[in-house]
Amino acid sequence: QWYQRRVRVIRQIIKIKWHKFGQFRCLINLLVYGVYLASWTCVVFIYQPWKLEKKDSGATTDNANIASVCVAVILFLYLLVEEFRDLYQSVMTHSRYKEWRSKQIERDLQYVPEKLTEEKDYLLNQAELVRNSGSPYRQDPWNVFDWIGYVAMFITSICVLTCLYIGETHSEAYKYFALWTSRLMCITIIIVWFKLFKYVRVYSFLGPFVVILVNTIHDIMKICFVFVVFFVPTVAVFYHFYNDPEGQYFAGVRETIFTVFRMLLVDDYGYDDMRDLNFTITVPDKSTKVVVKPEVSWTDFLVSYWLLMGAIIILNLFIALMSDTFQRVFDNAAEVALLERATIICNIENNLPGNKKRAFLRYLKEKCAPLEAYYDDDDEDEDDDDVKKFTEQT
Question: In 151-306, at which residue ranges do the beta strands (DSSP E only) sit?
């Protein structure tokens, strides 16, 4: 019961901090990022530099392109500055912690007798761990994903601004550059939308779902490895037997890869063409030509093998892994989501101005010391027949 009461106290302080300053700050961050997403999505819809022959060069369209790109770039620079500020704040906070903890360990070493070698070794080991510890900012996978998105967005912004500055030209160099700029925009917008999960994970109705989704990444990597093991030799076999430079489905390696992948979706993959495919070869004396074709039974065997392994076994194995992960993570998803909310609240609290910090501490002293909370001992011990409800000062 003492442990459960302590957990309840921690939950309560997280709830208080969330309502006092965490909820408002997270909502502002979500709104800013929502406008950022909307602006870059509009850029992808409106600005299409690679469609030179179809693009309307009117003043209205040009002004809309420039306005949407400028708003998107300004919001990107704002978020980038905020990320640098969070990085600096995290490094400085960790540096102060290392200094405080090192002094504490040095003080403890002065009072350790020479005979207690184990205690001394423990403190020296702790001092070494403190010296080698890194900033928590670098250990958060979301921050790594953030910087991937920022780098991609920075390159995209440079390319888009370059296209706007150069303007429409029909040179081959500009067409090639504009085409790759459009491709980079499409890749970047996908990454940027994925980052939205970071901003909604603090909310109780979406936080557990984000935790489950993140934990399925390991299963996706496992199943991708198994898929590659079966997929690569299958592509080689189909290319070996059915490569036809004049055909549609197996004209080259790229076409073969895509066709074999389409088989898993029971899409059109040219089954009739594989059965009727003929090859004309010349015998060594170069005087006689012979028509050769793979056997129909061999074609049926290859197609059946790949559909069995890819569309049935591997797909169902992936579903089973996802189900097991969901069931395993779901039990603790709410607690992990609460932990992530607590981490974000701590980061927000570290960035609060001094007057707001003092105001919050004053609120804790006046309103929450002690905090009157409704307590039901039935939540702790269901077997207790003597159910009592009372108000306890926590």
Answer: 279-282, 289-292
pLDDT value of position 394 = 38
Q: At what angle do helices 23-46 and 59-110 cross, to 10 degrees?
A: 140
The distance of Cα 343 from the centroid of its chain, to the nearest Å, equals 18
Helix 315-350, helix 23-46: angle, nearest 10: 120
Beta-bridge partner residues of 290: 281
Pairing, β 279-282 against β 289-292: antiparallel
Across the chain, which distance is largest between two alpha carbons, in Å?
104
Query: CA 278, 284, 288: angle at the middle one, nearest 5?
Result: 55
Cα separation, 359 vs 101, in Å, equals: 28
Q: Is the pLDDT of residue 385 over 70?
A: no
In angstroms, the CA 350 to CA 21 distance is 12
Mean local confidence (pLDDT), 296-314: 84
Q: Is-contact 338 239, C-beta < 8 A?
A: no
pLDDT at 294: 56
Please provide residue 391's backbone torsions phi and psi, each rounded to the nearest 5 degrees.
-95, 125
**For the segment 245-296, what is each residue's pLDDT rounded down to a tens digit?**
777 788 888 888 988 888 888 777 777 777 766 554 445 555 555 455 555 5
**Taking the model in full, what pTM does it have?**
0.73
How far apart are the C-alpha atoms of 104 and 127, rounded to whole Å? Answer: 10
DSSP tag of 203: S
Q: Give the tens place of pLDDT for each residue, 168-183.
A: 666 777 778 888 888 8
List, in order, residues 6 or more apart from 185 with CB less than 8 Å away: 43, 44, 47, 156, 159, 160
State how far the Cα of 48 lies from the Cα of 54, in Å rounded to an integer.
10
Cβ count near 30 (within 10 Å): 16
Q: What percent of the chain has pLDDT over 90?
A: 8
